[in-house]
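U., I forgot to send this yesterday:
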Amino acid sequence: MAKKVLGRGLGAFFPDYDNEEKGSTGRSEGQTAAESKNDPSGKVNIVLDIPIRDIRPNPNQPRKDFKDEALDELAGSIRKHGIIQPVTVRYIGQRRFELISGERRLRASKLAGKEEIPAYIREADDEQVIAFALIENIQREELNPLEIAMGYQRLMDECSYTQTDVAERVGKNRTTVTNTLRLLQLPDFIQAALRDEEISGGHARALINVRSESEQISLLKKIVSSGLSVRQTEEMVRNLEKKRDQARKPKAVQTGNPFLESLVNRLRKKLGTKVLIQEKGNGGRITIEYYSEEDLERLIQHFDEMA
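Result:
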């Protein structure tokens, strides 16, 4: 449990914090070298008022958009009531702290003219800083879906997490993580609409299944101008796919060939979904249908188990 420490200077807990006042050795008169070393146990699980100038931003901050109006409102509240919940930082030496979470509170405190801010100090490596910042923002629902997706991807790229690892760290199921990561496959104009909150994550995921960019643009305009719901958008995407399938007019083999007919039935029973076989020359194509993102994830997991 964190403990609030009152009436104590930062130098009492961070021996090198007052180096400028004590000289280059970082020791006061009579203090041994061993005593002046930084003890990590003295840097964590405490809450101190820290000069804002000594806190550097979190380079791993997953949140990118901070609305000016909301920051102004928070700054007004801070002027009146102060900071209710401390930010979280880690001590990095040389009189400096690095923010782990609470950038919105830090920015608003600067706007409010505060010189110090209460901060909970904890020990964390680079990997943990990324995870802490992402998890805190997700729990507070302060990130848009695209920022969450980028946060997940950073955990995978920089911390070598698998999708399962990410799901465990952020308290989500693997299907949710997979579907969120798919948002990064969207073209820039859809990502921009999602970032600007013109559409929701559900709208964006539906548009992933539209293959033509011109059709994506057309659908996006309809969603925004007509205020289409996610369900209405998904229905429009399904109708587009049906028209495309009808235009292809595939030669689906379901009868006339006992072997293929038997194979279709076996696959349908095994996979629990509609299966078609199309002949083409000496070869052909097997089409397996799915009806939702969850259904697709179920099929993928089924194939993984078969591998």
